[in-house]
């Protein structure tokens, strides 16, 4: 996938490898009933690290005391034996974050923890609440004092206004006010709560670990901690887990499902089960459909690792063209890698991927990748391939052109930065990148590969049909949410 911004200043924030990708802001994990809940949560966050590398946090409870630890960086940087030993208890919720709303500071690290009327409430959230600013202004006018700039904190303040009616009613009343995408886990001294927005934009799953319950953004976290997947938390469902067991509430009117298809295209780990589909298998099927739509005369198929590997395997299977790992990824590029000069910044694209010259020289190749966002990185990589003497370079992309920004929790560029909106045709994009030809998977082909009905997906980044109305100035909103 191409994701690098042009003219990006050389700062730690901007040159870390994660910042050249479209990103989602977080992953959440919860466990109830395990004697070492915080450690289980840590490993769950470790499995979800791809969903956010900015900060990590865990809140635990032993039924009496509630304890918290958060920090900036990866889960393995934030938590060690000493930190985990200070988080005893049988309940825990955890969070890994990349900010799409709120600044990148420790005060915005989650889970949030507050004490209100002799009870603790902790919350961790994945998604983007579109009306958060409006709700915040109303709450502040009523006396609420916010501790962070995160949209997630709005939920806690809404609940505080309704807790006199009981916890369940407070949760229902609060979530009924939200517009947008959310998956959240909450914790009191003795309860875990999980909730998913009525459209089901983001994935959230329920699992069983011996006699305990676990909840996670993706099922790959269950595999790591040894839990068994039970089912998805349903869109619009609220789960309350305590010592008596599991209680399911479905208080909201049913609406059309709006699963984010980009989870299947790129975000979710390939070993996860998302929206009832195995991600690895789905991405291979994207490659199958690509091969049925587009088959240039080439000698080999190569992916841009790692994101293009699975679709490339599927393409090679369907087309019969040999698959080769013609680009080798350096997996040891550190998060704090800083380019010391402009010359080194120009070479930055080679730090992560390097071609196998003896394999590719004088060959005609097809590159498979999962998407093109801005075009800059793809252009630089193709330029490097041309310089080493490749005869022809074609590209197949396993999703349609991304032409609209996402207000639901994905850090896509504003519309003006997306290459598919700046160039009038696929041929113009191919020329800009330096390709002999370019083909995007059709919308129908992508949907067919999922095996699901088109009506259950949010496809707004491709067709501009937003299932939940975004702010009037979506470009401004998306720009601000990515600061």
Task: Describe this structure as you would to a colleague.
The chain has 483 residues and is of the alpha+beta class. It has 2 domains: 22-255, 4-Layer Sandwich (Glutamine Phosphoribosylpyrophosphate, subunit 1, domain 1); 278-455, Rossmann fold. 30% of the residues lie in helices and 24% in strands. The chain is built from 20 helices and 23 strands. Helix 10 packs across helix 11 and helix 10 (279-293) packs antiparallel against helix 18 (443-450). The chain starts with 11 loop residues before the first helix and ends with a helix. Mean pLDDT is 87; it is low at 2-23, 335-342 and 475-483.
Count of β-strands:
23
* End-to-end separation: 22 Å
**CATH domain class name of the largest domain:** Alpha Beta
Q: Largest beta sheet: what is the strand line-up? A: 3-2-4-1-10-9-11
Per CATH, which architecture of the largest domain?
4-Layer Sandwich
Q: What is the general shape?
A: elongated
CATH topology of the largest domain: Glutamine Phosphoribosylpyrophosphate, subunit 1, domain 1
Mean pLDDT metric: 87
Radius of gyration: 23 Å
Overall structural domain count: 2
Q: How many helices?
A: 20
Helix content: 25-40%
In short:
With 483 residues, the chain is α+β, with helices and mostly antiparallel strands.
Features:
Glutamine Phosphoribosylpyrophosphate, subunit 1, domain 1, disordered C terminus, six-stranded antiparallel β-sheet, 483 residues, seven-stranded antiparallel β-sheet, alpha+beta, Rossmann fold
